[in-house]
């Protein structure tokens, strides 16, 4: 799996295309066990907010938020593929779906990848009364 310092990515239908700055390759690829991530099953990595640029199809992106409404999950409204999200645990980063990277035929070649305990989110421990 060859990861370029600047790598293009897209949803399944190609309506949404984006570019990622990955000078250090895929840093800490991971799964998450939160209710959203365990259902979508994607392997993700992260970049700073300015490391992801939408090239085409921003109008096709749909936002989904739940629970604390902090994380912002984006999906293609045409094919339904999860492309990226602004992280709750680090709002200065986007996590992106490694399976969307151009030329990555099988992101599961990265296995085993770390699994974050999203069901017990660190932000939930910081605020025990749920606000």
Can you describe this structure in just a few lines?
26% of the residues are buried. This protein has one domain: Metal Binding Protein, Guanine Nucleotide Exchange Factor, Chain A.
Write up this protein.
The chain is mainly beta and 131 residues long. The chain has one domain: Metal Binding Protein, Guanine Nucleotide Exchange Factor, Chain A. The chain is 8% helix and 34% strand. It is built from two helices and ten strands, in the order E-E-E-H-E-E-E-E-E-E-E-H. The protein has a five-stranded antiparallel β-sheet, with no helix packed on it. A three-stranded antiparallel β-sheet has the order 1-2-5, with no helix packed on it. A two-stranded parallel ribbon has the order 3-10. 26% of the residues are buried. This is CENP-V/GFA domain-containing protein. One of its GO terms (molecular function) is metal ion binding. InterPro entries: CENP-V-like (IPR052355), CENP-V/GFA (IPR006913), Mss4-like_sf (IPR011057). Keywords: Metal-binding, Zinc. Belongs to the Gfa family.
Mean pLDDT across the residues is 89
Strands in their spatial order, largest beta sheet: 4-9-8-7-6
- Which residues form runs of ≥5 with pLDDT under 50? 127-131
The CATH topology turns out to be Metal Binding Protein, Guanine Nucleotide Exchange Factor, Chain A
SSE series = EEEHEEEEEEEH
CATH architecture descriptor text: Beta Complex
User: How many domains?
Assistant: 1
- Biggest beta-sheet profile: 5 strands, antiparallel
What is the total tally of β strands? 10
Rounded to an integer in angstroms, the radius of gyration calculated over CA atoms is 14 Å
Q: Output the number of helix runs.
A: 2
**Percent of residues in beta strands?**
25-35%
Structure classification: mainly beta
How many angstroms does the end-to-end distance come to?
A: 42 Å
Organism: Halospina denitrificans
Keywords: Metal-binding, Zinc
InterPro entries: CENP-V-like, CENP-V/GFA, Mss4-like_sf
Protein name: CENP-V/GFA domain-containing protein
């Amino acid at each position: 799996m060859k990861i370029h310092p600047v790598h293009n990515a897209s949803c399944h239908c190609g309506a949404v295309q984006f570019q990622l700055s990955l000078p250090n390759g895929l840093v800490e690829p991971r799964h998450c066990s939160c209710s959203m991530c365990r259902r979508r099953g994607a392997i993700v990595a992260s970049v700073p907010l300015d490391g992801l640029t939408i090239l085409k199809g921003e109008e096709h992106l749909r936002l989904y938020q739940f629970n604390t409404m902090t994380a912002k999950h984006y999906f293609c409204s045409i094919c339904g593929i999860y492309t990226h999200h602004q992280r709750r645990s680090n709002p200065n980063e986007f996590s992106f779906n490694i399976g969307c990277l151009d030329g990555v035929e099988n992101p599961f070649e990265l296995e085993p990848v770390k699994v974050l305990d999203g069901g017990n989110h660190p932000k939930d421990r910081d605020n025990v009364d749920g606000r």
